[in-house]
């Protein structure tokens, strides 16, 4: 089992960062890059074998909207990879995955959980192209296409991968239930899109409730399976507390079950922390 990192933004907030901004964690590429490096180091120390960069929401259009130039935007996207690489090198081992967030992350309206976009496949191809080319040449070990909500965006990313020989990637989807990704496409259908592509390391599920993961694993054929769900927390208004797999020990035990069910890559997404990854590591060592 390859152990991924956990929620980068979640840990950055624990380290004192204020991410109340449409750039989210990418805001810190401008304001405090050293804390991003520290977050990567903390995940490596907890047992993660892969650092996922802070480029999820770091698109050129988003930085231009903030008033930066194209050159400045490109530099910040490259910086996201450099920070993760520096943390990896300081730790002494591991890999760097350059995060390719969905178009919905730029929209900042929750569309990464619906796939309700105002662009077609050609439009998505064009929107992703510049950042893709920057990340593909920035020195990461592979690209992480993550929280993809629609088959249309998946097709656009597959086309971009075809334009960059020598680049490998994983693709993971946000899912609405145990059968379908966020736009309603069956998981089997989007997995089949990549089954014969040797440049794809894994197909998987992220930013999705843990209760759906086991069923989704069964629906991915032809590629190694990757899962890094959210903590599964929901707000219980009656008891005024978060409920779900927030407990790292429970999350680690669930991760072991996902591995047994067929997941080759396991980690966490939103509201998971280095302690969640430490528990996955402990279960992996026992396995």
| N-to-C series of helices and strands | EHHHEHHEHHEHEHEHEEEHEH
Total tally of structural domains: 1
Largest sheet: 8 strands, parallel
Portion in beta strands: 15-25%
The CATH architecture name reads Alpha-Beta Barrel
The CATH class designation is Alpha Beta
Mean pLDDT: 94
Give the name of the CATH superfamily: Homocysteine-binding-like domain
> What best-fitting shape do the alpha-carbon axes yield?
globular
Widest sheet, order of strands: 1-10-7-6-5-4-3-2
Structural class: alpha/beta
Keywords: Metal-binding, Methyltransferase, Transferase, Zinc
Domain Hcy-binding: 1-284
Binding site for Zn(2+): 207, 269-270
GO molecular function, one term: zinc ion binding
Structural notes for this entry:
With 287 residues, the chain is α/β, with parallel strands linked by helices. The chain has one domain (2-205): Homocysteine-binding-like domain (TIM Barrel, Alpha-Beta Barrel). 44% of the residues lie in helices and 15% in strands. The chain is built from twelve helices and ten strands. The strands form two sheets. An eight-stranded parallel β-sheet has the order 1-10-7-6-5-4-3-2. The relative contact order is 0.14.
How do the helices and strands line up, and which of them pair or pack?
Elements: E1 2-3, H1 8-14, H2 27-31, H3 33-46, E2 50-52, H4 60-65, H5 70-91, E3 95-100, H6 103-107, H7 121-136, E4 142-148, H8 151-162, E5 169-173, H9 187-194, E6 200-206, H10 213-217, E7 225-228, E8 234-236, E9 241-243, H11 248-261, E10 263-266, H12 274-286
Parallel strand pairs: 1-10, 2-3, 3-4, 4-5, 5-6, 6-7, 7-10
Antiparallel strand pairs: 8-9
Helix pairs in contact: 3-5, 3-12, 7-8, 8-9, 11-12
């Amino acid at each position: 089992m390859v152990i991924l990192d956990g929620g980068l933004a979640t840990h950055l907030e624990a380290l004192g960062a204020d991410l109340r901004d449409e750039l989210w964690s990418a805001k810190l590429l401008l304001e405090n890059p050293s804390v991003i490096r520290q977050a990567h180091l903390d995940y490596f120390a907890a047992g993660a074998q892969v650092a996922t960069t802070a480029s999820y929401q770091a698109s050129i259009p988003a930085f231009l909207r903030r008033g930066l130039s194209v050159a400045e935007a490109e530099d910040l996207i490259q910086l996201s990879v450099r920070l993760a690489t520096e943390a990896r090198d300081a730790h002494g081992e591991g890999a760097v995955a350059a995060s390719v967030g969905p178009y919905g992350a730029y929209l900042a309206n929750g569309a990464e959980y619906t796939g309700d976009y105002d662009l077609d496949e050609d439009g998505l191809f064009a929107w992703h192209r510049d950042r893709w080319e920057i990340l593909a040449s920035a020195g990461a070990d592979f690209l992480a296409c993550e929280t993809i909500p629609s088959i249309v965006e998946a097709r656009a990313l597959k086309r971009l991968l075809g334009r960059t020989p020598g680049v490998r990637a994983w693709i993971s989807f946000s899912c609405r239930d145990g059968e379908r990704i966020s736009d309603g496409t069956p998981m089997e259908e989007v997995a089949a899109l990549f089954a014969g592509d040797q440049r794809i390391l894994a197909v998987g599920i992220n930013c999705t409730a843990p209760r759906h993961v086991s069923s989704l694993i069964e629906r991915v054929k032809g590629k190694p399976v990757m899962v890094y769900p959210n903590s599964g927390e929901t707000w219980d208004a009656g008891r005024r507390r978060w409920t779900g797999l927030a407990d790292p020990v429970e999350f680690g035990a669930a991760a072991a079950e996902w591995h047994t069910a067929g997941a080759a890559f396991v980690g966490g997404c939103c509201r998971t922390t280095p302690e969640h990854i430490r528990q996955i590591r402990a279960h992996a060592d026992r396995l």
